[in-house]
Design a protein that fits this description.
Elements: H1 3-20, H2 24-40, H3 43-49, H4 55-66, H5 72-83, H6 90-104, E1 107-114, H7 120-134, E2 137-144, E3 151-156, E4 159-164, H8 165-178
Parallel strand pairs: 1-2
Antiparallel strand pairs: 1-3, 3-4
Length: 182
């Protein structure tokens, strides 16, 4: 099974059980907190995937870290993920859970990758254009990637719209190398 499929299955399971228990929004908010923490410092994931740390220590650490702060369902879910040795998929599971919740609420999660931060005006115009194109409310996340040089790469669901300068240069390079010089 591919990595994305594993993360998606776990996210779906978490979504359906949280929905069943009426905890979808609480789990969503708590996962946002966790995601931000993991993106700043991945030491928890490094700890969880370390082969020299026993399962008992991992389980104990998860209970101590999350038990007092997170919904019981979420703590149980983290323990399951650790038992099944899926800790390395945790960020992907969180991202997929967010996508599921957004989709169910009629939102479309979109990532805009640029070389520099978008201004408030650029951000608003992009959101408006994407909403007009998709017919859905857009939740826009920005990522900075200096390698794209300029322009914009937009990722929405299973589609990528690549208007990055680096992509244009790559396409031009391919055309030039395909030319036969007489």
């Amino acid at each position: 099974m591919r990595n994305r499929e594993i993360a998606t299955r776990y996210a779906q399971a978490l979504y359906y059980i949280s929905k069943e228990r009426g905890l979808t929004d609480i789990v969503y908010e708590q996962l946002i907190v966790l995601q931000k923490a993991l993106e700043k410092d991945d030491s928890l994931i490094v700890f969880l995937i370390a082969p020299n740390i026993t399962d008992e220590k991992k389980q104990s650490a998860l209970k101590n870290i999350f038990g007092p702060r997170f919904e019981k369902l979420l703590v149980e879910f983290f323990l399951l993920v650790a038992r099944k040795r899926r800790e390395s998929y945790l960020l992907e599971i969180i991202q997929d859970y967010h996508k599921l919740v957004a989709e169910k609420k009629g939102f479309l999660q979109v990532t805009a990758i640029t070389a520099h931060s978008l201004s408030a005006d650029q951000r608003q115009k992009l959101i408006e254009k994407l909403q007009a194109k998709t017919g859905k409310k857009v939740e826009l996340t920005e990522k900075i990637d200096r390698d794209i040089i300029g322009g914009l790469r937009v990722q929405l669901k299973d589609e990528t719209i690549d208007g990055a300068v680096s992509a244009s240069l790559d396409r031009l390079k391919q055309k030039l190398t395909a030319l036969e010089v007489a």
